[in-house]
Design goal:
Layout (H helix, E strand, L loop, with lengths): L1 H20 L1 E6 L10 E4 L12 E12 L3 E8 L4 E9 L3 E6 L2 E6 L9 E9 L4 E6 L2 E7 L10 E4 L9 E11 L5 H8 L16 E4 L2 E5 L1 H5 L6 E8 L1 H10 L10 H14 L11 E6 L8 E2 L24 E5 L2 E5 L6 E7 L4 E5 L10 E5 L7 E4 L3 E6 L2 E6 L4 E6 L10 E7 L9 E8 L5 E3 L5 E3 L22 E2 L21 E15 L4 E12 L5 E3 L12 H5 L6 E3 L15 E4 L7 E2 L8 E4 L5 E12 L11 E10 L7 E3 L5 E4 L8 E3 L3 E5 L6 E10 L2 H20 L8 H24 L9 H25 L16 E3 L11 E3 L2 H39 L1
Parallel strand pairs: 32-41, 32-42
Antiparallel strand pairs: 1-12, 1-14, 2-11, 2-13, 3-8, 3-12, 4-5, 4-11, 5-6, 6-7, 8-9, 9-10, 15-20, 16-17, 16-18, 18-19, 21-22, 21-28, 22-23, 23-24, 24-25, 25-26, 26-27, 27-28, 29-30, 31-34, 32-33, 33-39, 34-38, 35-40, 36-39, 37-38, 40-45, 43-45, 44-45, 46-47
Helix pairs in contact: 7-8, 7-9, 8-9, 9-10
Protein name: Pentraxin (PTX) domain-containing protein
GO molecular function: chloride channel activity; extracellular ligand-gated monoatomic ion channel activity; ligand-gated monoatomic anion channel activity; transmembrane signaling receptor activity
Main location: membrane
């Protein structure tokens, strides 16, 4: 164990020693001229019998120029004439490794920039068929694919492919090949300059035979701590507006010294840069602050950030509102007039400034990207990675093709400030994007990825474009906010297909219904619904521009909406079968679900394109619709109903359009307690029986019985009980008993009439009708019993109706001597008359009515709740 630790320690010391000693770097075609003679051939031994099944290829590189592609590594076998056994190729936006004549492109996350060091590794594991790409130690891409052939060869060279435009222009170092896949941790340590691991198949230290290639040595850590040399672009005396524009357009700012040492340094830098031209600018440079908006409140001109300046000259600033700009003098800052004065300007760059020329329809980035340089004061040269450059000829800016020695276009002489940076008009002299002549708007920008270039060449975040607020200082970010790009053969009357790959499958359309309010009219059997209807579909024919994550920023204008195909939906169970409409209240917007596929290289700006096949269109509108319901009121008021919203897509038959069952939904967002009903969970039902695609949103309704109980059942039950209790009144008070029951009967009849008027007229009995009719019939039956009981009692007020033997003479105590007797009814006789048979009738009525009541209620409520 100790021996292994000692060996490991010695190995680490050796690596550190080698890293500090130096690593060889090879430079190819530094002048950018493509030729087939710049090549480095491997000096180590190659064994054709050593066949690689798994492998790792790593290299550290720096790009100078790009000719189509850069082939930095090639292994081939001459005896078998296999030229692509192992190859590494670079573009500005993608990489490719060729393994045994099989390859796979991979777009990189961030485009390569010239004059910057990168570390790249390809790994392949034949056991798992796993293929991975690492850039600067980070996994950029992984996939699986079968190679099924070994890698071998007898020749290795660097810097050349098989064609002139495949040659490599840049610097190479640490090119190594292993016969196994390296781990991610090992690759990360190599990328971060912690180790300098050599390949066991191809080793960088084995030596290279150089042909027109220069070589130098750097320390290992210099690759990872490499910083570009600070550069300065100088411009002679000019206006503050032009000085500000030039620095901002170049991706820099006017200087602002924060200490007196920095103030003095500008004079020293100028003297060192232009030692032979003392008449040129040595002091008095424009500074990047002003107090134009508020006197005495100094801010930077590029972001309006407040600045506490402590480098003013004595007695400065002293110009109040007459002098709102600042200049850098040898002894400090001073305020001066912004309009009438001209001063020198300088722009500082911590790294090389790179530019892109947008709107020229070039698919290869080497013809789009430029790097800017300065040979003398006021001069700018935009040299492309490929065959283009932009320079000034006399007083005119020219876009020139160095390969064909042709002028492509000339800058319009009326361009703002006479400079090419930003969005400018050019006069074409050769074909650009199929346009042979005339004027064309192009954009020369230094803005990085995920940025948008304003007309004045300043940069803002890409998502800030067309976000309904101004972000550019010239307000150009809220113009040309078109969202949809249609092909020339687009027709809005044709139903989109699913994709260009599957043109026979019907288009799925998702319907999403959000109900805001529901009102039920039971009498008319109508449902009044306020809801939002959204329809979602894809149209592969369309391309979308600069989509935002916020849907509200992807809303199409009314004109754009009316120019596109949209689904037409019919509301079937409505009067006259209403249809969906397209008007000013309709909103059509786009939803970004997938990242952009590519950019529009014909647009003079940063325009990202999103496929209509992967990002949907959504149309939304609020509707107020009266739906016809079919209620079964047999169990009213203890019924449970449902009412459907029947929707049908009318645009085409279901052979062309179907409803997307997995994405269609319906929801209710308000309170579930309505005036008469309580809502349950909405359900969606799909009807496939018709020619068209139909969907029904079923709204379950459970009636709230509180009203019926308090206004129908309890009052009617109380009245019925009153009628029943009249059977317990004394039999001989017939008028009281009959009036009580008749009054209850009349009230119940009135109640029945009111309830019937509030419900639809049906040919069948409702349970509430049964209840009220029962109450009325029972009251009428009680009246019959009262009559029977009364008839069973003799009218004692008529003595002639009784036998003489049963009449006694009653002499009032007040007149005992009265001669005329007054007939009266014997009390005992009355009792006997009441008991036989009146008492039997009363009892029969009491128990009979009670039994009927109990039996009916048992049957009634069992039927309802059973």
């Amino acid at each position: 164990m100790n021996g292994r630790r000692l060996l490991h320690l010695l190995l680490m010391l050796l690596l550190l020693y080698r890293g500090s000693y130096g690593v060889e770097v090879l430079e190819f075609q530094k002048d950018g001229e493509a030729n087939m003679e710049t090549v480095a051939e491997y000096g180590g031994r190659l064994d054709r019998s050593w066949k690689l099944q798994s492998l790792t290829l790593c290299a550290r590189f720096q790009i100078f120029h790009m000719h189509g592609r850069g082939t930095f590594f090639q292994l081939w076998d001459r005896p078998d004439n296999l030229t692509s056994q192992l190859r590494g190729e670079l573009w500005l936006d993608r990489v490719r490794s060729v393994i045994a004549h099989r390859w796979k492109f991979q777009q990189i996350k961030e485009k390569f920039r010239a004059y910057r060091w990168y570390h790249l590794c390809f790994t392949y594991n034949h056991m798992s068929s796993g293929y991975k790409i690492y850039i600067d130690g980070d996994l950029n891409y992984k996939t699986t694919y079968e190679v099924d052939r070994p890698v071998y060869g007898d020749t290795i060279r660097l810097g050349q492919g098989e064609q002139l435009e495949h040659s490599f222009s840049g610097a190479l170092s640490q090119v190594n090949v292993w016969d196994h896949p390296l781990s991610a941790d090992t690759i990360a340590e190599m990328a971060t300059c912690k180790i300098d691991l050599k390949g066991n198949y191809i080793s960088w230290d084995a030596g290279w035979t150089l042909f027109n290639v220069t070589s130098y040595t750097v320390s290992l850590k210099q690759f990872c701590h490499w910083t570009a040399k600070t550069t300065y672009f100088w411009f002679p005396e000019t206006s503050r507006e032009l000085a500000t524009y030039v620095c901002e357009a170049l991706g820099s700012h006017l200087p602002l010294p924060t200490t007196m040492d920095e103030v003095h340094s500008w004079y020293n830098i100028s003297s060192a840069t232009w030692p032979d031209e003392p008449s040129l600018c040595r002091d008095n440079f424009w500074a990047s602050i002003d107090d134009m908006k508020e006197e005495g409140y100094w801010v930077t001109h590029y972001d309006q950030s407040p600045v506490a300046v402590n480098t003013w000259k004595d007695n400065e600033p002293n110009g109040i509102f007459f002098e709102n700009c600042a200049e850098i003098e040898p002894t400090g800052l001073a305020d001066i007039d912004c309009v009438t004065n001209k001063r020198c300007s300088v722009c500082k760059f911590s790294q090389i400034a790179f530019f892109s020329l947008l709107g020229i329809c070039e698919s290869e980035l080497q013809n789009v990207h430029f790097k800017v340089s300065q040979d003398y004061m006021g001069h700018l040269l935009f040299r492309g990675y490929g065959e283009y450059q932009i320079h000034k000829e006399g007083e005119e800016w020219v876009w020139f093709n160095v390969k064909t020695t042709q002028t492509v276009a000339r800058l319009d002489p009326q361009s703002p400030l006479g400079m090419p940076m930003g969005r400018r008009t050019w006069h074409l002299e050769t074909s650009v994007c199929g346009q042979m002549s005339g004027t064309r708007t192009l954009c020369l920008t230094s803005c990085p990825d995920q940025s948008y270039t304003c007309d004045d060449a300043t940069c803002i975040p890409l998502d800030s474009r067309c976000d309904r607020k101004y972000d550019c200082q010239d307000n150009s970010d809220e113009t040309n906010c078109q969202l949809v790009k249609k092909p020339n053969d687009y027709r809005k009357d044709l139903v989109p297909r699913v994709s260009h790959k599957n043109n026979n499958k019907s288009l799925p359309v998702a319907l999403n219904i959000t109900i805001e309010s529901i009102n039920i009219d039971t009498t008319r059997m109508m449902m009044f619904v306020s809801y939002s209807l959204k329809m979602t579909w894809y149209d592969y024919r369309l391309m979308f521009l600069n989509l935002k994550l916020d849907d509200n920023l992807n809303v199409l204008s009314f004109e754009e909406m009316m120019s596109l195909w949209t689904p037409l939906v019919g509301f079937m169970n409505t009067k006259s079968s209403k249809l969906s409409v397209m008007d000013k209240e309709t909103v059509l917007y786009l939803r970004r679900l997938q990242p952009h596929t590519h950019t529009d290289n014909s647009a003079p700006g940063e325009v990202t394109l999103y496929s209509g096949e992967e990002n949907p269109l959504i149309i939304s509108r609020v509707y107020f619709t009266d739906y016809i319901c079919d209620f079964n009121l047999v169990l009213y008021p203890f019924d449970q109903q449902h009412c459907d919203m029947h929707l049908r897509i009318h645009s085409a038959s279901k052979e062309y359009i179907t409803i997307d069952e997995t994405s269609t939904s319906a929801k209710y967002i308000s309170s579930g307690l309505l005036l008469e009903y309580q809502l349950s969970q909405l359900t969606v039902h799909f009807d496939k029986s018709s020619k068209f695609s139909d969907v029904k949103v079923r709204i379950p309704l459970k009636r709230r019985v509180g009203y019926a109980l308090t206004d129908i059942y309890i009052p009617s039950l109380v009245l019925l009980l009153i009628s029943y209790l009249s059977l317990f009144f004394r039999p001989h008070i017939f008028e009281v008993r009959i009036m009580t029951t008749l009054t209850a009967l009349l009230v119940m009849a009135t109640l029945f009439s009111q309830v019937s008027s509030s419900l639809p007229k049906t040919s069948y009995f409702k349970m509430v009708d049964v209840w009220l009719l029962f109450c009325i019939v029972m009251s009428f039956l009680i009246i019959i019993f009262h009559v029977i009981i009364d008839l069973s009692i003799k009218d004692v007020t008529n003595p002639g109706s009784y036998p003489p033997s049963k009449v006694t003479k009653v002499i009032p105590l007040s007149d005992p001597g009265a001669l005329s007797p007054t007939p009266t009814l014997n009390t005992s006789i009355i009792t006997k008359i009441y008991n036989f048979p009146t008492k039997g009738y009363v009892s029969m009525a009491q128990y009979g009515i009670f039994s009927i009541l109990v039996l009916f209620n048992l049957m009634y409520w069992s039927y309802i709740f059973g």
